[in-house]
Amino acid sequence: MLAGVPLEYTTNAGVLFVSWRGGPTADMVAAELVQAADPDLPVTLRPARASAEFLHLSVGDLTVCLHPRDPTPDQPWAPRVGQHPNSRPWPWPWRLHDSGASYDTVLWTAGNVDSGGDEVAVVVRVSPSAATAAHSSWSESGFRVIDADYEVPDHASAETKRLWRQRTANAHIRLRYATTGWSDAEADEWLAGDGPHQRRPMISAVLLDERCIIRVDAGLRIVATVADGSPWVSAPWDVLPSALYSALSTRVADHLNPPEFLNVRRYGDAWSQVRFQLSSQLVAPGEHSYGPPRAFE
Known about the structure:
This protein is an alpha+beta fold. It is built from six helices and 14 strands.
């Protein structure tokens, strides 16, 4: 059950503490240990429990305390390929669903004939912790992205809950994976709302089945579709807003002159490269926008 998850062992007052980050909860591990225990070395649950984050066992004559940090029991284990500077393991590539937040860096490369010869936005998505921790070797600039539907698990640590509130308040981009049957009016209503952080970030986006509706707080509504000839099945919808953010603020255009087409792919997945067509219109800017909208072609 804990295969591949780095374990930490410490002792204090005769108690063996076993801790890990991610993976199963203490209850799940305890149930497995009790069921699989050898008759000569029985495992029983101790009634004392300091908090929801700790669980005590008796393994023979030894007292063991299980202490998972931010368990992720609903996620399948994936091999870790690197160690975070503060010893936290982090998966690669990073998925937004893993913790509700990510840190996206956009790299621009020269396009090829198949993509129309334009630049390609290659989006590198990593854990926000891996990108922003003290003494981190990740020095590239990027954008903080949040999944607006993510809910921090009740068993998460107080520090994780604090970080989620902080990331939500400071997000550059917020996304919502729309449920089936969402209308454009419902999407626009959500995009125009302030959300739990009491302000809209630079970009809000609703990801539909074959479209992405994006609102730029400076005063733009953009509908992105897959251009003719692109494989929409593998379209990198979830990183499209980050590529657009970069295009509006750095390379391709400014923040109120979006490009008509945008070539995007995820880093490490060349097959995800897709050419998006962007249809834009002016809308009322948000309260915290970058200024009044300007006309664009």
